Amino acid sequence: AQSVTQLDSQVPVFEEAPVELRCNYSSSVSVYLFWYVQYPNQGLQLLLKYLSGSTLVKGINGFEAEFNKSQTSFHLRKPSVHISDTAEYFCAVTSSGTYKYIFGTGTRLKVLA
Amino acid sequence: ETGVTQSPTHLIKTRGQQVTLRCSSQSGHNTVSWYQQALGQGPQFIFQYYREEENGRGNFPPRFSGLQFPNYSSELNVNALELDDSALYLCASSLTSGTQETQYFGPGTRLLVL
Question: Chain B residues with CB inside 8 Å of A101's CB?
Fold first, then answer.
């Protein structure tokens, strides 16, 4: 069975500082990985995805993530955060032939002025 | 904007009642998935519909049921509501075409069961 672990429930960071949100997954088959962002009282917005190819994936709003198969990780990074990045971030995993996404419990990013 | 819309945005029901939530898929998408997101949790997969048939189901009881229509819009029905059904219900549409599909989410319907 697949699973996703987001170890940090909350990450406070000052504006313009770098941030890394951690995601680890477990799966016995090849995976596809996603990061979604959820702003208060809204649905999920796709930030970026890894399907195949380059392990460094760039997404919207200056975010990027690196797929590390040996460490079964897909950490999300941004070199300089803004107040507007304050939101909940979810990592999700799926695989070929699977119809559902498995989500982590989320990491609340709080950017401080 | 993903082009996925859901209605209503908010809903209040009492225990034992029935509810229907609606989702309109992004243009060109043929698959819809429904998720339940309890407060402080990640979304949990309820089921998926592809070409009007259920294509997979998560660990939810039969009182959670769905429909997909020829225009690929969808409904989620929940019977005999329980307090624990209070959550944000998310609909996601995608295009199943033999390769990995990416799911695009709507804004959700927030259901409160009293």
Answer: 33, 35, 43, 45, 92, 103
Distances, alpha carbon B30 to alpha carbons B6, B26, B55, B71, B96, in Å:
16, 9, 12, 9, 7
Residue (of B8, B37, B31) closest to B109 by Cα position: B8
Is a pLDDT exceeding 80 seen at residue B111? yes
Which of the four pLDDT bands, split at 50, 70 and 90, describes residue B95?
confident
Q: Which residues make beta-bridge pairs with A73?
A: A24, A68
Using an 8 Å Cβ cutoff, are B77 and B65 in contact? yes
Q: What does R_g of chain B's alpha carbons equal in angstroms?
A: 13
What does DSSP say about strands B64-68 and B74-78: parallel, antiparallel, or unpaired?
antiparallel
Chain A nearest C-alpha distance from B100 (Å): 6
CA neighbor of A14 nearest in space, from A86, A65, A75, A64: A86
Between strands B109-113 and A56-58, the pairing is unpaired
Question: Could you read off the pLDDT of A17-43 as tens digits, one per residue?
Answer: 999 999 999 987 888 999 999 998 888
| Beta strands A10-14; A107-112: pairing state | parallel
In the A/B pair of chains, how many CB contacts fall below 8 A?
Answer: 60
Do B107 and A90 lie within an 8 Å CB cutoff? no
User: What's residue A83's pLDDT?
Assistant: 96
Neighbours of B76 (CB within 10 A): 26
A36 contacts: CB under 8 Å, gap ≥ 6: A44, A45, A46, A47, A89, A90, A92, B105
